[in-house]
Amino acid sequence: MNDQVKELIMAGQTTVYNQVLIHYQDLGLDNDDLVIFIQINRLQSQGDMASPALIASAMKVTEKAISTRIQNMMKKGLVNVQSIGARQEFFDFAPLYEKLIEGKGAQVDNRVVSTGQQSRREVMKILQGEFGRALSPMEMQTVNQWFDQDHFDPNMMTLAIQEAVANNARSLRYIEAILVNWKRDNLTSPQAVQMANEKRRAVSYQTGNSRYQKRTQGQDQKSAGPKPKVPNFKFDQF
CA 20 to 30 Å from 96, out of 41, 80, 88, 177? Predict the structure, then answer.
């Protein structure tokens, strides 16, 4: 047995009830929430404190994004936070298991449109409101293709429309490009998009700081210029 296999075994494993994996969306959780739930259980089963900083480090996202999601779980009544010492907290998921056993699903947030023909009409209505005009037959055909051929989620369509409007790009081609990119990156919920944006902003902020520091150092070196030479005088010259 090589060292890597030993390390894998010694790291242990985290057990998750299959009913949680099957019904987590019925409880109002998305894929990212599920990973946070698993990370919390992993850390606490090891005897560690499941701090947002540790979870964020494991998931490669910002600490703020993790804290926001945990707060949302608390608002949905899925987790209790108990203080177990100075600056130490324990996440108790007993409420989640109780809802699971009783079959009481939580209300899913951000449901902006329904399914079926109603969602199709709603998306077109939102587009017409943002464009300030009626859609052309070709534009309506494009929206129908989003539903029938691309199978984009109506909620993601609405979010993409909002993103395009925020960027002052009111065109179906721009909106479709956003949807294609999200699908490629496996961003399947508004929450996932939010976490990806926060992660991107964090990377951009760090990169910007690094570039600023390098530029500042370069300017300091240029402003300093070459050191002046001090002439050596001999007293017998005067």
Answer: 88
pLDDT 10s digits, 60-95 = 889 888 999 999 999 989 999 887 666 678 899 999
| pLDDT tens sequence across 3-37 | 766 666 666 677 888 888 888 888 888 888 999 99
Q: Per the structure block, which two tokens stand in for 29?
A: 């959780």
Is 124 within 8 Å of 136 (Cβ atoms)? no
The token duo for 229 is 């030479």
Rounded mean pLDDT, 95-119: 63
| Alpha-carbon span 138 to 219, nearest angstrom | 55
Q: Tell me how far apart the alpha carbons of residues 95 and 71 are, in angstroms, rounded to a whole number.
A: 14
pLDDT of the residue at 112: 44
- Contacts with 41 (C-beta within 8 Å, 6 or more apart), sequence order: 14, 15, 16, 93
Answer yes or no: are the C-beta atoms of 77 and 99 closer than 8 Å.
yes
CA angle 72, 99, 83 (to 5 degrees): 55
Q: Check: CB of residue 191 under 8 Å from CB of residue 33.
A: yes
Rounded CA-CA distance 174/163 in Å is: 10
The residue with tokens 């907290």 is 89
